[in-house]
Input
Amino acid sequence: MIIILKNNPDKEQLEGLTSWLESQGISVHPTVGASQTVLGLVGDTRRIDVDLISALDFVDSVKRVQEPFKDANRKFHPEDTVIKVGNTQVGGGTMTVMAGPCSVESEEQLLTIARAVKASGATMLRGGAFKPRSSPYSFQGMKIEGIRLLLKAKEETGLPIVSEIMDASQLPLFDNVDVLQVGARNMQNFSLLKALGQTRKPILLKRGLCATYEEWLMSAEYILAGGNPNVILCERGIRTYETYTRNTLDIACVPVLRQLTHLPIVLDPSHAAGKASLIPDMACAAIAAGADGLEIEVHHDPAHARSDGPQALVPEVFDKLMRKLTYIKDAVDRADREIR
Ligand code: PEP
Ligand code: MN
Output
């Protein structure tokens, strides 16, 4: 249930209402926006009398929220969430580009790629240290040494770093990692999500291979309900009957999620396409659709990459893509401003 307040509500009356609701076992989540203040109520609201609350003179309207996700719901939080990561931000119309190798492989590999993506304008460096591989015989990542190299690349380039956490027990290793990625295969690892809810780290929550929007948002809800408001959603392609591409990029998620949630939305065309030649056009489409950012795999020597080589862009292609994206983002922003 949400309660939309009139402008400048009386503070004492508001506190009175809040403590009465809390005494009914309901938790109250206020959002003070530029144009309106909304109280989101979480808990069993079935016995709350809508007419009684609507009659209060500082209340504008009261609505029941049907969706099972509450904290992630745009009705609870009408304005876009903007998440601060190092000296950059994600959400509310940013063009965040998280670029780097699938896996951290060596100091030379990571620094070469980090310098290149930074020079092309990437805003964050990605790199997997713990790799969730479909086969137990495939490269599993450099683990703690991979994190150490990412921190070194962060120090040199100043780029915030994004890396995948596979298990809550790894949390202490991620102290200085800026964004913790939850991989598609872990989207419903509820014990991991609960542990991340206890931190205040920005979390890049990838969509599960077969997850509906509601399932994905309920996973975000686990993190938000724990008290961590810093969730970024990442679409990375879903399983369909098509096998030409590795997965199918669901661009419709951008307008759908814009309506359903206030959380930032990032698209990963690399894992969706699986083929480098398809990725630039898909990245452009994602920005044209209004995504807040992209996650893109880049490798200077894809033929020798230890994971996901076929989908890695070489730095020269990534650089051209970044230039093209800047034009597209400017055009989209101008159109949004001028055509209403
Ligand atoms: C990755 O980012 O390298 C990765 C494994 O992604 P996903 O979880 O989307 O497959
Ligand atoms: Mn990968």
DSSP finds ten helices and 14 strands in the chain.
